[in-house]
Amino acid sequence: MLWKYITLCALKIESTYKALGYPLAPITRVIQRPMRWFYHQSPLLRHDTRFYLKPFLLKIFHVMLVTTYPHDFKIYGNNISFRSYGSLMSIQGYYVGEIEYHLVQFVTRQMKPGFVMLDVGAHHGVYTLIAAYELKSRGWKGIIHSFEPNPYNFSLLTHNVKQNKLGNHVIFHNKAVSDRTCKQKFLFFPEENSDGQLESVKDMNKKDTESSLMKQDVQVVQLDSILKSVKKVDLIKMDIQGAELLALQGGEKLIMRDKPILVIEAVRGWPSTEKIKKFLIKHNYTLHGVDKHGNLCHIDSPDVFVSWDLIGLPPTKPVEVKFNRL
After folding, report:
1. Residue 155 contacts by C-beta under 8 Å, 6 or more apart in sequence?
2. Is the distance from CB of 238 to CB of 272 less than 8 angstroms?
3. Residue range 166-180: mean pLDDT, rounded
4. Order of strands, sheet of 115-120, starting from the edge strand that comes earlier in the sequence
5. pTM recorded for the entire structure
6. How many CB atoms lie within 10 A of CB 237?
7. CB atoms near residue 159 (< 10 Å)
8. Most distant CA pair in the chain: distance in Å?
9. Do 226 and 181 meet the contact criterion of CB atoms below 8 Å apart?
């Protein structure tokens, strides 16, 4: 496809320019502020397996012309101080001022007094921070359990919660989540710290090279392990790079008991995605997508904003769903 060819050409030019030490950066860096102003005009940025011009140009212009950015910035309407670096998400968050805003809108609409959420794959804490901020600002009790195995990401997660004084609403778990309790190797790339996976998940072929691959021993737990310590879970957000099915299987008892809303990354074409859908249907969940306004829509609707966002609703949870003609 044409966009793939364009992407490959851009990557080749980027690699060559980087090897030269970005000689024009002192001059071209002046576009950083205009770029940030432009991307701040809309909270939405579509990042998907498909090609979209706006995020593509952001990445190319930043990497080629700006090259650097402050690692501390504000998100969520300038209400949350955020430290983030080492991922494309970090760059997008700096320029846009929001991260996955469409999905954040859906999650925050599900909140209520006593809200309990499991943030599985918390990364630098976007969902943990926003949910905790909303609980605190509304004066509600509630807890976010944040699971993040990557030691670098975990340090940023804890820093962000502490600097925003949201610790009363967060419980940290420096652990990975799967279908068993054990120790495993966690594989990650320092240059893109949102791509980490357990060694047992055979999906690391997304990278062309493993020269910079790092390994770290991590503790792995099942979500069912918190059954006794949590009375009821209202929502589980899960983004763990292909291990979502294993995590669901390890939390099957909890899911059967509490019937939480499930917000899952399920990339089309990944081997685990169809199995995730079958697991949810087996437990009488209905499957939905999310539009750019944070509303539910048919999973195959053209209104779906990001194709890998999968929402599972239990039969007892009435949430308005927008159905459009396909």
Report:
1. none
2. no
3. 95
4. 170-173, 142-147, 115-120, 235-238, 261-265, 309-313, 286-290, 296-298, 321-322
5. 0.89
6. 23
7. 17
8. 60
9. no
In degrees, rounded to 5, the angle at the alpha carbon of residue 89 between the alpha carbons of residues 7 and 213 is 75
Q: In this predicted structure, which of 35-49, 137-151, 186-200, 231-245 has the lowest mean pLDDT?
A: 186-200
Q: How is the chain split into domains, by residue range? A: 2-96, 101-322
| Dihedral class, residue 198 (left if φ above 0, else alpha if ψ from -120 to 50, else beta) | beta
pLDDT at 60 over 80: yes
Angle at 117 between CA 115 and CA 119, to 5 degrees: 155
Average pLDDT of the residues in 49-77: 91
DSSP assigned state of 169? G
CATH of domain 101-322: 3.40.50.150
**CA pair distance 187, 214, nearest whole angstrom:** 6
Phi-psi label, residue 323: left if phi above 0, alpha if psi -120 to 50, beta otherwise: beta
| Region for 270 from its dihedrals, namely left if φ exceeds 0, alpha if ψ lies in -120 to 50, beta otherwise | beta
The pLDDT tens digits for 109-131 are: 999 999 999 999 999 999 999 99
Paired residues of 145 in beta bridges: 118, 171
